[in-house]
Amino acid sequence: MSAVPLLDVRDLTVEFATRRGTVRAVERVDLSIGKGETLAVVGESGSGKSVTSYAVMRILDRAGRIAAGTVTFSGMALRDLPEGEMRDLRGWEISMIFQNPRAALNPIRPVGRQIEDVLLQHGQAGRGNARARAVEVLESVRIARPAERYHAYPFELSGGMCQRVVIALALACRPQLLIADEPTTGLDVTTQKSVMELVTELTRARGMSTLLITHDLGLAAAYCDRVVVMEKGRVVETASASAIFRAPSHAYTRRLMRATPRPGAGLRDLLPEGAAPFPPAPIPGAPLLVVEGLVKEYPRAGGSLLGRLAGRAPAEAPFRAVDGIGFEIRRGESVGLVGESGCGKSTTSMMIMRLLDPTAGRIAFDGEDIGAIPARRFASSAARRRIQMVFQDPTDSLNPRHSAARAIADPIRRLGTLRGAALAARVEELASLVGLPAALLDRFPHQLSGGQKARVGIARAIALNPELVVLDEPTAALDVSVQAVVLNLLHELKLRLGMSYLFVSHDLNVVRLLCDRVLVMRAGAIVEEGPVERVLGNPAAAYTRELLAAIPHPPA
Amino acid sequence: MLRVALSRLGTAVPSLIGVVVVTFLLTRVLPGDTATYFAGPVASAEAIAQIRAQLGLDQTLPVQFGRYVADLARGDLGTSLGTGQPVLHEIATRLPASAELTLSGLLLAALAAVPLGILAALRQGSWVDHLCRVVTTAGVSLPVFFTGLLAVYVFYFLLGWAPSPVGRLDAFATAPPAVTNFLLIDSLLAGDTETFLAALSQIALPALTLALFALAPLARITRASMLAALDSEFIRTARASGLNRRTIVLTYAFRNAMLPVVTTLGMVFSFLLGANVLVEKVFAWPGIGSYAVEALIASDFAPVQGFVLTMAVLYIALNLAIDLLYGLIDPRAKEG
């Protein structure tokens, strides 16, 4: 670290004016980044890590303000800089990339024009050469056919491609400091790897400093020199990346590290104190769900209604989202379905839940071919109550106007027979099963935390004693410490109630913890299948190896 | 673009058929017997029966409907009993008057409401925001006949700035050669500044009255959609990239906020066109609204049918135009 840091934050305190008074989001935070250094700020949601970076950029929203402290960048006190000068610094000296790259781009402006806007703003190009410069910038982030992509709109590009455009936007004017706010959250592991490698390579080649904000300790350790750990608006630990992994000094850091799923750690190892070990898992019984030759085709876009009416056949063959897959799930078994976005894993789970009609193939549940029942009529089928689902987003999958109790009671009211006091008693029993305090049952989703909402979603799914539960990325939206608890809960429930799980996920480390067997999907087909230890420990398919290699590994 | 337009037009055909059937039935179930009304209070039963036969009202409903559709196919909307003029001709002369008034009012409203809404969204809680709230509340709560009369009282009677509020042109001006039948445009095309000013002074007050009414929904939706757009993540990116305020507000936020504004604009236009009867009455404007109301009161069914059909066609055309405009504003809309 050089003597004079590029960015020096001292005693930074940020306050937000809310209806319930002033809230301190960030309190007396100190951090500094030297020239060419890469610093990670790690913390769970609400730790104030993003707010800190917005305060540095002075782009806090209307309710937020810097209450105390100094921010010095290249010897300039940013807090006292007039807005006009601050605006010149943004995108020119300090720039930022964001989580959810597609939303971070203007949806109705071609991406090339958006890059031009930045170049023109900072005098990096004139009217004459702006387009050529924008294409150059797109090329520098390795976007294939940049001249063509110049005209593309964000909705026409993949998530990884959008993130490249956001990086292009941020690096267009060759700033000295790049702030990356959860740049790869929501992207596939292989995309995450290529995005992170691109950022590292470009910033290193240009001698830039990087501030990486992330919830993922592994990512921080793999790509950064130093790590700052934040909890509830305060910095609790600052250390070099290798030191923090070898010897975390603060209790919170240790807890965070413990909760992070990693090779060699079991479910119980994620929890803070040694809980009683699980009883041995029962040997899986007879096949419960047998899928054979399952196919789902979608017509290609194009072919207008008029064209179809006139009898013109679509020119291309339909798109096969799921291409003839087959597998089985035994009673009491938990099977992981992994793959990257677009591989067909969600389509498969939707067909098993009978929300989508398969194009071809058989879905046999306990001997009955439920694939033959049209999706519209499945709700009234006897099998419906035996298959349930837990959704990815614990917030969006709950009706915001229903209390927790009503959400849990909902499947019983529709498919069950319990009413009145018996129903209320069952709801309380379910709440205690999933560890939701009974006092919270009257609350509405917005009054519950992420982990509590996840528990409501699970209680709702098990309300009818299902035999098969489809878990669609149930912990993807949760902080690691909450994820650790929810994963343990899911495993406990499985053992207690003898359910089978189909666990859909993109996170191989989580699948390793919870599943007996794993299916790896790519482009609608299963490329590898087998016991989880074997597939993840000694993968046979090249694609599985690629997925495993893409998981960020902390320095040993 | 053309393909999209054609397929949208195709979907409009069933609604047009529906409109034809419903307007026909509605005018037949209206209370009051047309034949009795036009025969006059002292007519004998035979005279009434004769008029009824003349009008074809003694036939069964399906036969009457068949005749109506056959006439329609020839472009014949029937003849008004009240004025003795063909309905098509009357609508053709009166529609431009209404359209000119409505469009002027809408243009004024949009010119005032959009900047007002944007400013209110940018400076939430400031005096502009309060002004926006007061104006929109006044706009929706004061009925147009009241604001219209107030405007006449103040600007014509007290101040004498406006000409007498009667019609589209005062008696001494000569109408320009008809091209679009919009007096403002036709007089400009003819290079006749004097007539243009005369028409402008006639239209000013009724257009203002309408504008005040149309202002409210436009300003509110502009403010709301601007707030939503300003709160989105790409605005944060734009700010973090150091773009200037003007680019952020106009190029980034406003273009994204425009979709709901355009939708509202279309809705306001379509209901103003038919519903500005009160303004037309107050300013003796020879428009289509007052024509339809007079016909309705007189149980004169041909003009009523013609009016409803015209409105339906206009409404469909308007929706088509808005759909196509969507495609220009938002590239994602083209996909659908």
From TrEMBL, chain A:
Name the UniProt key words of this record, in alphabetical order: ATP-binding, Cell membrane, Membrane, Nucleotide-binding, Transport
Compartments annotated for it: namely:
Cell inner membrane
**SMART domains according to UniProt:** AAA
Residue ranges of every copy of the ABC transporter domain listed in the record: 9-257, 289-548
From the UniProt record, give one GO term of the biological process aspect: transmembrane transport
| One Pfam family this sequence matches | oligo_HPY
This one is known as ABC transporter ATP-binding protein
Q: Origin organism of this chain?
A: Muricoccus nepalensis
UniProtKB/TrEMBL annotation, chain B:
Q: What parts of the sequence cross the membrane? A: 12-30, 103-122, 134-159, 196-216, 257-279, 307-329
- Could you confirm whether the keyword Disulfide bond appears in this record? no
InterPro entries recorded for this chain?
BPD_transp_1_N, MetI-like, MetI-like_sf
* Source species taxonomy: Bacteria, Pseudomonadati, Pseudomonadota, Alphaproteobacteria, Acetobacterales
Alphabetically sorted, this entry's keywords are:
Cell membrane, Membrane, Transmembrane, Transmembrane helix, Transport
- Is Aminoacyl-tRNA synthetase tagged as a keyword? no
GO MF, any single term: dipeptide transmembrane transporter activity
Q: Which Gene3D superfamilies is this protein grouped with?
A: MetI-like
Q: Name one GO cellular component term.
A: plasma membrane
**Topology class, membrane:** Multi-pass membrane protein
Residues of the ABC transmembrane type-1 domain: 95-326
Which compartments does it reside in?
A: Cell membrane
Which SUPFAM superfamilies does the record cross-reference, listed alphabetically?
A: MetI-like
Q: What is this protein called?
A: ABC transporter permease
Protein family per UniProt:
Belongs to the binding-protein-dependent transport system permease family.
